[in-house]
Design a protein that fits this description.
single chain; alpha+beta; 3 strands; about 60% helix; about 10% strand
Length: about 150
């Protein structure tokens, strides 16, 4: 948070002088002191968040890869008339603890073409998909494992 606040200070000042740097350090220290006193902000919590950034970046790359794979599958379904579409509703149990990670998982499923999360009830995701094979192994997929590691 201190790096972010100090960077914002420098950007808003549009120049870097000794006085601006010193005043920025003092102001950032005062803001951080106020945050620790008035909110539940802590440096340990911030370090915990920063330690999870690589997992979040990995999750974005996995999501992009899965979207590309699903695009290929849906394009094949659309272009090849011999492929029969067997739409189905699937109930998937994914062990996630926080509502935030459940929301990320539901949105990730919906972002991948051919699948749509209809509802989430506890750890059960109700997903409509073009074929059952599109969701095979999602309970133990990289999606689920990365989100479970983000929760820890």
């Amino acid at each position: 948070m201190s790096v972010l606040l100090f960077s914002l200070w420098l950007i808003l000042n549009a120049q870097v002088t000794l006085e601006i740097v010193i005043l920025g350090i003092v102001l950032v220290a005062l803001v951080l002191l106020a945050m620790t006193r008035l909110t539940d902000y802590s440096f340990k919590g911030e370090l915990k968040i920063w330690s999870k950034v690589p997992l979040a970046i990995a999750y974005v790359f996995v999501l992009i890869w899965e979207i590309l794979k699903a695009n290929k599958t849906v394009a094949r379904i659309i272009l090849d008339r011999r492929v029969k579409v067997e739409q189905t509703v699937v109930y998937v149990d994914i062990d996630l603890k926080t509502d935030f990670c459940k929301m990320i998982m539901a949105n990730s499923i919906t972002l991948t073409p051919g699948t749509m999360t209809a509802s989430v009830d506890g750890n059960t995701f109700t997903v409509h998909c073009l074929s059952r094979e599109m969701l095979d192994g999602i309970e133990t997929s990289t999606f689920a494992r990365l989100l479970q590691r983000l929760e820890a």
